[in-house]
Amino acid sequence: MHPIFHDPRQRSILVVGALAALAICSLGLSGMTGSVGVAPSELPGALSQLLHGRADSMAATLLELRLSRAAVAFVTGAALSLAGVMMQALLRNPLADPYVLGISAGSSVGALVALLTMGALWMVDASAFAGAVAVSMMLYLLARRDLAGGSAAAGGASVLLLTGVILSSACMAMVTLLLSIAPESRLRGMVFWMIGDLAGAPVRVLPWVVLGGALLFALRSARSLNVLALHAEAAATLGVRVGALRKGLFFCSGILTASAVTSAGSIGFVGLIVPHACRFAIGPDHRLLVPVATLAGGTFLVLADIVARTALAPQQLPVGVVTALVGAPFFLYQLHQLRRS
Question: Does some domain include residue 149?
């Protein structure tokens, strides 16, 4: 075996670098692929036009539209995957995902209310974000003792999980009510938002700021997360500020989920299968798992969006359908492999 694989630091740099290159390639593939393709020979000229703030040719126009959508897909997938890593660490359960605490359901209630009242696009986004924040605050108030506790006992995680499930059930009942009273002219858009769709999603700076801040927190807390995972009951005696760490994980995963759901609706399986697959491939060390899962989540959703745009072109599928069709059998395969091992 090559000596580089024996050095953990060099191995980490190699893995993260390879995933970063794969992410860039996926963005390029997204720009070239669609109902009307962009030939590799046209890329330099189209990119040159975009860098100069122009889109004079058809190739440049297509590239601009597709790269914008790919950028939204990448930041959404990265946010969901990172939120999944944080939620799994918070609940000490590798099968937890960003939607398990009901934050996505709260966002859905807010978005559907705005869609039902024919609000503008910015009102839909603002309502979705407000709904997610409202559920997060309710969850925090109801489970603040467990989040602030000095130990990471399974009982505290169970109370937090059950509280989230109850709030999620209440929000989903409201979603059902909104869908049942919605006129047919608005029902299709509401259902597409619920499934998860990137069509028309605008490029914003805020999701990137949220992702960068949460990623920085996760990287700085990676050693503490490792201690919490290996020595949960004794983490406080080993110097880990368990209460502050759990609060940070809760708020960062909540704001990441709110940002992702506001941008693209409820896209399932990304925050569940990507962290789980990365942990299965590279191990549970959060110093490597955090950046790898973030890059892999973004790349996975970009590739899923390519399939959603091209599988039945010119008709486009909701990207949430593709992630579910890919994620469900892949996750079942992972569980089968774990049982065999």
Answer: yes
Quick check: 107 and 129 in contact, CB under 8 A?
A: yes
* 341 found inside a domain: no
Q: Is residue 266 part of a domain?
A: yes
pLDDT of residue 264: 86
Q: What is the mean pLDDT of residues 73-92?
A: 92
pLDDT for position 137: 87
Q: Say if CB 93 and CB 157 are below 8 A apart.
A: yes
Task: Give the distance, in angstroms, between the CA of residue 215 and the centroid of all CA atoms in the same chain.
Answer: 12
CA separation for the pair 244, 250 (Å, rounded): 10
- pTM value is 0.88
Residue 287 lies in a domain: yes
**At which residue do the structure tokens 């794969």 appear?**
22
Q: Nearest Cα to 29, choosing from 316, 303, 304, 333?
A: 303
Domain containing 137 equals 3-336
Burial environment of residue 123 by CB neighbours within 10 A (0 to 12, 13 to 18, 19 or more): middle
152's enclosing H/E stretch is none
Q: Please report, for the domain that includes residue 226, its CATH number.
A: 1.10.3470.10
Q: Do residues 170 and 137 make contact, with C-beta atoms less than 8 angstroms apart? A: no
What total of structural domains would you count in the chain? 1
Mean pLDDT of the region 238-257: 85
The helix/strand/coil state of 139 is helix
- Sorted by sequence, the CB contacts under 8 Å of residue 37 that are 6+ apart come out as none
Residues 297, 80: contact at Cβ < 8 Å? yes
State the pLDDT at residue 218.
95
